[in-house]
Amino acid sequence: MDSPQYQELGLVSQEQQPIDQETVRATWKFLAGLSSNLTLVGFLVMPLAFEGAKDDSLGDKTGTAVAALALIGNAYLLSLILFCAQYRKRTYLIHSVFLPCLFSNLLGLLNVVLNILCRKLLPIGRLETVGMVFASIFAVLYALCALWAYGRGIADEIRVDDADRTMIPLTEEEMQRQQLLRLLQENQGKKKSSAKVMQKTFRPTWIIMRRDDGDVFTNTRPLWHPPGARGIYGGAAIAQSLAAAMRTVPSEFAVHSMHCYFVLAGDSEIPILYHVERVRDGRSFITRTVQARQRGRPIFTTTLSFSRANSGGKKKLEHATSMPDVTLPDDSSADVKRRLYNAGGGPFESHKLGTVNRDSSKPEDKRIRRCMRARGNISEAGGHHAHLSALAYVTDSYFIGTVSRVHDIPRFASPAELKAVLNALKNPSDLDDDEISRAFKELKEEEAAELRRRLEGALSKAEDPKNKHKHKEVGMMVSLDHSIYFHNPWAFRADEWMVTEMESPWAGEGRGLVLQNIWSKDGTLIATCTQEGVVRLKQDEPPRSKI
Questions:
Q1: Going by fewer Cβ within 10 Å, which terminus of the chain is more open, N or C?
Q2: Least trusted range by pLDDT, from 139-148, 437-446, 472-481
Q3: Considering only CA atoms, which of 294, 278, 274, 276 is closest in space to residue 286?
Q4: Which residues lie below 8 Å from residue 462, measured CB to CB, with a gap of 6+?
Q5: pLDDT digit string (tens) for 300-342?
Q6: Residue 216: per-residue pLDDT
Q7: Acyl-CoA thioesterase-like N-terminal HotDog domain spans which residues (predicted)?
């Protein structure tokens, strides 16, 4: 049943409430336990019919024997039903059906044998023979089934069918082993620049394993690790978590909010397993949680909410912040083409639109604007889900860095870094990275001169002893959480220009908060994002004692 507030708003639909998935799982577990227990009880009851009978006639023990056989027969029938209904969940069948029933049959067989030996019922009568045959045959069958399920799980290769997204049941260890082998093979080939590795991660191939505790997804290619960062690019985890969650909801539902927490730094060389939990399936809203894990530890977690399309009714309240009056890049312009070419081969193209209130003494009044889009055309095969994932990917770009930018703290703030950039600007051919070298070479003469003047001015201030106590340098910048509110999930394409505006309303206590609005090409507000992160400055060293 939907929450009371939805009923009061008149959003209750007449369609039937879907069965809660947790209830279904609990029911299957109950039936599996019942099957095992009925088997054991049946074999415990059967020896009671042996009492005082050494001949082959059933006599007075007929009722007891029939009851025992009825219990055992019902248990086997339940096992057959569970096997047919849960055929694809081999891990579930092994641990909930095959192994418990195997042990129950072995205990039943042992119980029958001990009763025969202790009560000296030799030679064995019909009933004793039936008990031993039942227990032996089904113990062997359950053992063979368990070995079959285990063997199939190990033997299956990780494969992906883009047409029907085939679901392959594999263990986490096997998935990680296969991924590591693939990463090693790729690393043996020609070394690719970080930008090209980043480009590959945008088109992930999802490998799905359905288990008793939910759906598990994994990336198939290495994720981008930005230079100098503690771990992988956060936008990749956000986008892939969203893609995993969207695979578990009906097509008529679209994501409207996503709340993320960055727990640990991700390793680009280790595959990430995205565990999706189906928290709630309502008529109007669906809730999912996704936990990204490496080496068995969570590195990222998010909760997502999906709403049914057009569930708000015909009458509704509407308003939205207008897109700033900006000029989008002209793709036919030679200058725009040159800038985009210099940006490298990453998955997104970015173009600066300037800073509002740049000269203001109040950092909270500044607004940083730029436009971004996916490089090239997004394939239609991925549907609109691909555009939503692309949008989620880009929301983490240039985000927490807004805090330092509105304080006019340059990215390269230390004297050593400023000198390195100045040297690269004067001698771009000395750079190892071809794309950065090309970007410096292609700068216009007046642009290069202006950049040199700014860097030299910043360097002189940084090296001036009088300004030492005033010099600010970022020592640590890490995202803590990230929220996205999708306002019009069907009203944009991520491979068209999207305008973003960022601001920082607050910073303090070693943290900073950033807000971001994103508009589509036609001015529709498509998303609002918030992010808080650690932003700490390098502290002055305390004076050393002369003693």
A1: C
A2: 437-446
A3: 278
A4: 413, 414, 415, 418, 471
A5: 999 999 999 888 888 889 999 999 999 888 776 656 555 555 4
A6: 86
A7: 222-306
In the chain, the amino acid numbered 200 is K
Q: Is the separation of the CB atoms in 370 and 352 below 8 Å? A: yes
For residue 462, CA distances in Å to 403, 407, 452 come to 20, 16, 15
Contact predicate 262/234, CB 8 Å: yes
For 394, phi then psi, to 5°, come to -80, -20
Instruction: Output the six-digit token pair for 67.
Output: 């009851």
Q: What is the model's pLDDT at position 280?
A: 94
Whether 83 contacts 96, CB under 8 Å? no
Structure tokens at 347: 């998955």
Nearest to 160 by CA among 220, 246, 214, 211: 220
Mean pLDDT value of segment 55-78:
69
User: Other C-beta atoms within 10 Å of 36: how many?
Assistant: 24
Token pair, residue 255, equals: 């994501």
Residue of 373, 393, 479 whose CA lies nearest to 204 = 393
The C-alpha angle with vertex 307 and arms to 304 and 313, in degrees rounded to 5, equals: 155
* Rounded distance between C-alpha atoms, residue 96 and residue 82, angstroms: 10
Instruction: Give the DSSP H or E segment for 126.
Output: helix 126-155
Find where tokens 């090309």 sit.
438
Q: How confident is the model at residue 60 (pLDDT cuts 50, 70, 90)?
A: low
**pLDDT single digits (tens) 413-449:** 556 655 666 566 555 555 455 545 555 544 445 445 5
Strand segments, DSSP code E, in 327-441 are 348-356, 367-374
- Give the integer Cα–Cα distance in Å for 453 and 459: 10
Q: Which domains does the chain have, with CATH numbers?
A: 21-155 (no CATH), 172-308 (3.10.129.10), 325-407+472-540 (3.10.129.10), 410-470 (no CATH)
pLDDT at 325: 93
Angstrom distance (rounded) from CA 249 to CA 277: 11
Mean pLDDT for the chain? 72
Q: Are 169 and 153 in contact (CB under 8 A)?
A: yes
In tens, the pLDDT along 72-88 reads 777 777 777 777 776 65
For 520, the 3-state DSSP assignment is coil
* DSSP H/E element including 297: strand 297-308
Q: Is the sign of the CA dihedral 247, 249, 255, 260 positive or negative? A: negative
